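[audit] Reproducing an earlier prediction to check determinism. Same input, same settings, fresh worker. If the tokens differ from the archived copy the diff job will pick it up downstream; this log only records the rerun itself.
[audit] input (333 residues):
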Amino acid sequence: MLRAALLYFHYNSISYYDNNKITWVIFTVVIQFFQFILIKKEENNMEAPVKKNDYYDVLFEDLTHDGAGVAKINGFPLFVPNALPGEKGTVKVVKVKKGYGYGRLMKLSETSPDRADAPCPIYKQCGGCQLQHVSYDGQLRHKQKIVKETLARIGKVDVEKVTVHPTIGMSDPWNYRNKAQVPIGEREGALIAGFYQQRTHEIIDMERCLIQQTENDRIVREVKAILNRYHIRAYNEQTHQGWLRHIVVRYGYQTKQAMLVFVTRTADFPHKKKILAEITAKFPNIRSIVQNINPNGQTSYLAKKQSCFRVWNIYMIISDQLSLPFPHDLFTK
């Protein structure tokens, strides 16, 4: 009603301000500004067609880049983990935002041929992977689709005139990742190591990760056990106390050598000599051990300040046929 009154007032004021163009421009800008404010207020007052904790039967139409199924209720998008396009099911709304919402999949009445049983036992809790419930062929098609949509939306490319080739897959899509960056927490007085649960900072403890190189898993598992014997404390995000934030391992497929990084809140290293002695005795292939000191309160990963305790016989792989010794003087100590 107020918007209509503004338009009427604007229209009937044209002849009044006809002889003063500058005043007319200013008046027009003021009217348009108030119209904009009213439109935004009306949009904010519009109620979503779904309510939190209500249940809805939906058809999933799409899949996001992070593996959530997309259903629409009266045009209102609902993002639901572990759902696939073409599937039908019942969802519970768990969060409602201004233009979208989140749901939890309660049951499926129709399943997609691309659905697969996730081989990881903690897949639904852990936030490290998002597509294990999709067959590998389905994942490759989904990634090809993401490339097409990104080219069209951001690059303004006419994908009907450009060939986006199918995604090239692997013969074995497991245990390929040579870097493990693992947050550290505590549970019942002992260290736990794993990835964050989706949309939280709750660490899901794990013994092995199916996409990490198996040697990295073994190093993280054994290092965690050694640190527990010396009662090392994990960093606490709420109190900003504790010492260890992350364990990072890099593994060289050609050399079979590994690099171990402790990301810590402070520069001290409790029981350093004993802990490093146990680690190097257990893993002679660990050729560098680095402490990265990150005192920031945020959950940021690496900081600029670090110290290197052990460096020898490290090689730079130039090609499959050539390797050169890595210069030791690049390290601080």
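[audit] rerun output stored. Observation attached for the diff report: Helices lie at 2-12, 21-45, 136-153, 214-229, 272-282.
[audit] end
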